[in-house]
Amino acid sequence: MAWYVNVGIYGRPEEKRQEEENVMINIYEVVETNNMIEKENLDVRTITLGISLLDCIDSDLKTLNEKIYRKIYDAAKDLVRTGEEISKEFGIPIVNKRISVTPIALIGGAACKTIQDFASIAQTLDKVAKEVGVNFIGGYSALVSKGMTAADELLIRSIPLALSTTERVCSSVNLGSTRTGINMDAVKLMGEMVKETAEFTKEQDSLGCAKLVVFCNAPDDNPFMAGAFHGVTEADKIINVGVSGPGVVKTALEKVRGENFEVLCETIKKTAFKVTRVGQLVAQEASKMLGVPFGIVDLSLAPTPAVGDSVADILCEIGLEYAGAPGTTAALALLNDQVKKGGVMASSYVGGLSGAFIPVSEDQGMIDAVTAGALTLEKLEAMTCVCSVGLDMIAIPGDTKATTISGIIADEMAIGMVNQKTTAVRIIPVIGKGVGEQVEFGGLLGYAPIMPVNQFSCDAFVNRGGRIPAPIHSFKN
174: closest CA among 155, 199, 197? Predict the structure, then answer.
């Protein structure tokens, strides 16, 4: 990358050299990315404004909702316009402008005494999201990896009502961590809530579940939905940016077909570096224009249903007939690692999830693999051991039992806990549909074939209650 060489003039004041360096980097980076944007589906997937609601806490529900609305509106009223101006100035598509807030279980505990009370906060979030023009707002969340307060449990039980009465609200629950183990009481409850959310939104093919995700080791600074929330250790407001370029990586790999793994890895690293620099540029501009500190760049390869924007296609370019073929987990591990290595050289503040996403309904290559019989739920679970998230946007039969869903969640939480990584489950039991049928979610959520689920029972395991202890290697002190 030639634009890193001889940037600035020695002997000038440090401030002047830094200013010249920033200008040079900005100009050359925009030129560098023209082909990626026009031909390879490079985009900034999201600018996410994180907002702390801790100063909104109030024991009166009406006052609480008013404070939440006003805090978010004042902070985010210029977010969409800013994103559009940056996109126009630099020619970089910015697909989504989003908001994340402090987990609502923490904010609503003093005022909310019923499920309906918590749902009223979700409706306030939805109202202000519409007012400021963002497409999603995340943070209808609870953090219960070790135990649940009364407010945590009430919020979790309110999720079906909240997601069925709002359009833009996303919900997440952290059920486990490497440090604390897995809260199996919460895992059981979330299986029930996923099933109930599916029932509440069955007229939209159980769409509510597409806006609900459970985590192990959830990051505080994730800009991607449905799992974004604003962590309590974050500043009052922060800008986090998520970039995405599966098509860019695939195109780069097409030029090195037949080369050895060293060449393959170097190509992915260099491409990830370029993609991350685009995110860094957009984040810096948004931070300056909004007067909000820059948080992190999440350099995840996040696919869309568009042709040429697929993580599965990258795996095929690496050498697989379909995603799911033998070698898939190794290929995905290689891809994820090289994306991280390239990205961390491009920004001092890489965070969030940062790696490769493997959502079924949002990736045409994954859909094709499922349809061909190459990719199963069990193979996807194995792949989550080495990728960024977990079982994502998977449609399953609507008659799947809540305990079976809890068992699937428990397996994924265990992978995250033991491997000291973030894992997640966003699974959609589509009421009224079975294996072999298809469900259409629309937009970035795409469509998906209904995948079969193991029919053997895990009821006795899920119903034990209590916690699975943290692994021995969690003791770092």
Answer: 155
CATH topology for 241-474 is Anaerobic Ribonucleotide-triphosphate Reductase Large Chain (3.20.70)
Element of type H or E holding 444: none
Half-sphere exposure of 404 (CA within 13 A, CB side): 17
Contact 136, 149 (CB under 8 A): no
Per-residue pLDDT reduced to its tens digit, 128-183 = 999 999 999 999 999 999 999 999 999 999 999 999 999 999 999 999 999 999 99
Let me know if 307 is exposed, middle or buried by CB neighbors in 10 A (0-12, 13-18, 19+): exposed
**Range with the poorest average pLDDT among 165-174, 242-251, 252-261:** 242-251
Largest CA distance in the chain: 73
- Alpha-carbon distance of 404 to 416, in angstroms, equals 19
What DSSP element (H or E) covers 250? helix 246-254
**Nearest-angstrom CA–CA distance, 70 and 447:** 36
Alpha helices in 77-208 (DSSP H): 79-90, 104-108, 115-132, 150-164, 184-200
> Of 435, 335, 333, 433, which is closest to residue 376 (Cα–Cα)?
435
Q: What class has domain 42-216?
A: alpha beta
Contacts of 262 (CB under 8 A, 6+ apart): none
Cis before 333 (ω within 30): no
d(CA 64, CA 120): 10
Residue type, 269: K
Residue 331: Cβ within 10 Å count: 21
Q: Which two tokens stand for residue 159?
A: 């999720």
Any idea where the domains of the chain sit in the sequence? 42-216, 241-474
